[in-house]
Structures are given as structure tokens and as C-alpha cells.
Amino acid sequence: MDVKTIQIQVVKPGWLSTVQDLGRYGYQQYGVPVAGAMDLFSATVANRLVGNPDDAAVLELTLKGPELEFEGDSRIAITGADLSPTIGGTRAPLWECIGISRGSRLCFGTPRAGARSYLAIAGGIDVSLVLGSRSTHCASETGGFNGRPLRQGDVLHTGQPLQSVESLMGKRFPDQLVPRYGKTTTLRIIPGPQQNLFPATALATLTGSSYRITSESNRMGYRLAGSRIIQKGSPHFISDCTTMGALQIPADGQPILLMADRQTTGGYPKIAVVISADLHLAGQSAPGDTVTFVLSTVAKAQTALRKHRALLDAALPPRHLSPIASHG
Fold first, then answer.
1. Are 322 and 55 in contact (CB under 8 A)?
2. Quick check: 165 and 75 in contact, CB under 8 A?
3. 138 φψ region: left (φ > 0), alpha (ψ -120 to 50), beta (else)
4. Does residue 277 contact residue 301 with C-beta atoms inside 8 Å?
5. N or C: which end of the chain has fewer CB within 10 A?
6. pLDDT in tens, 278-312
7. First-last CA distance in the chain
8. Sign of dihedral through CA atoms 26, 320, 20, 146?
9. How confident is the model at residue 266 (pLDDT cuts 50, 70, 90)?
10. pTM flag (> 0.90)
11. What residues have CB less than 8 Å from 25, skipping those under 6 apart?
12. HSE-up of 327 (CA within 13 Å, CB side)?
């Protein structure tokens, strides 16, 4: 299969299909959100399976995926949520580098596990860099494909692959490293920067309760419903920067879990932060799902992240050159 730059027609857009990468870092002080993939782990694995660098642009597909027609031969990898992908009516494997032929249609069906699937295409999605990233931030209409989700009739272009297809075809991410997604997810947390604004029992309440992700949730954050977290009086502090995984507590005591499209600064106190090694699991949750929290330490969080990255690098060593660096 001779893989070159190709066009991809969007026959059906799906519910929320956007171009994402690792995020737009370095501009929060100017009010520019980070954005990027909700599940950075799955996006990274997908890119490595097709020979892309980690920062290549992928498609993030939420719950109901699109229908895409490929106008050239290519290689792809689908990771993250199982949204029942098929090629020409035949079930397509997940977490594996597979070929797709000119004229073939990639379709998605019933969500089976997880909320967000990641489609990496050899060469990456060729859209312009905006402040160093190709990620879409829909609220500000920044980056990605015209700053918005895909629509019917859109035409995507890929970059030039860096690696021959023969060397990667059939490459599969080890099954024992593939995350398992369920309707209930346990996330490890460390105390947040405003922990002192809560009574000593607050973390025990947080970790001893289950929280439902409400319908008022999106890429910016998850509103959680469950046991109230009470603050000490009326705390006042200077708004500070936000990070993915931070658990803010507004006046009603119902936590808000900040995600990829979070605001750049926030005025609600943050009682805890989900550890980096578990953020990919948070990114696969959807309204109606349940999350629980387990208290960890900074040292354990660092160890977990190092182990997580080491296992990924051992299974799929990274590439460091962008396939579409001409837009830099």
C-alpha cells in the first residue's frame, strides 16, 4: 500500500468530532485555553501506532462517531472508546495499525465502552498551527478545522507520513495495557491548593461518596452531583490558574471536575486535583456515569505517572518529528 497525502470526505459528522492534539500550552496568561484531547493517552497511542509523532493532530470522536470516505490509501489507528467502528461494513479492530483503501468508508455505530474515540491517520490531520497547536477550542472558534466540529461536506487533508506502511501494518498495542472503561470510574486525587479553605472532614466526604456526572457537562468540565462539600464560611482568595483534573467547589458544594477546555483562571476553591496518570480515564467518562475518588500523595502520583509513561514508551517508542511541520 503506497501511503501518500490524501483527502477525507466527511459524509456524516457525528455528534462532536473535532481535530485535537496535545493542547495549546504557554498562553493561559493571555486568556487562551489549553484545549487538546480529553484522553491524551489514547490520542498518543493512536499516533504512535501509525508512525506519527505524539503531537500530530487526530480526530476526537464523542459518543456517536462520523462517517468518513477516504479518497486514497492510508493507514489508521482507532483507540479509546469502542464506538463500533466498521470499514465497508466489516468490524475494524481497535488499538491496532490497520490499512484503509481508496474509496472505503469508515463508520461508527453504537457506543460500547468509553465516551471518546481517537482516530489517527498516517501523516496527521493537516490543519494550520494556531499558537503552536492544531487543537480545536469551539467556544473561541480557535484552531482545528475552522475552529469548529466537523460538518457534513467538510474535506480533511493529511500530511505526508514519515514511515513506510509495511513496518507498522498490524502493529497492536499490548492488550494488557489497554484501559478498561466502565460506567463507574475511580480516580486518584491529591489535595488541592485551597484545601485549607475546607474543614478537615471535607476530603473524607469527597472520597467517601459517589458522584454522578450530570448533563451539564462538556469538554470544559464535568458538573458532579453527590454529597455536598462544605467550605469554611465565605472564603476569599485571588483567582489563580486552572489545570485539567482540578476539582473546584462552588457555593452549592457540588464539585466541578475541570477538563481540557477549562477556563484559564478560576475563582472557586480547588479542594483536590486528579493525578495525571488517571486523567485519561476521566476523559472517557460521560453524563450519567459515576466517579469516585481515592486520596493519594504527590510521591505516589509521580511514581504512577513515571510507570504509565515507561510502559507506553516500551510498547511504542515515540517519534519526535512532525509530519506537517511546514505549517509551523
1. yes
2. yes
3. alpha
4. yes
5. C
6. 999 999 999 999 999 999 999 999 999 999 999 99
7. 29
8. positive
9. confident
10. yes
11. 34, 132, 133
12. 21
Range 148-171 average pLDDT: 87
CA dihedral 159, 84, 36, 153 (to 10 degrees): 60
| Rounded Cα–Cα distance for residues 158 and 246 (Å) | 34
Q: Which domains does the chain have, with CATH numbers?
A: 7-178 (no CATH), 184-296 (2.40.100.10)
Report CA 108 to chain centroid distance, whole Å: 18
Q: How far is it, in rounded angstroms, from Cα 65 to Cα 68?
A: 9
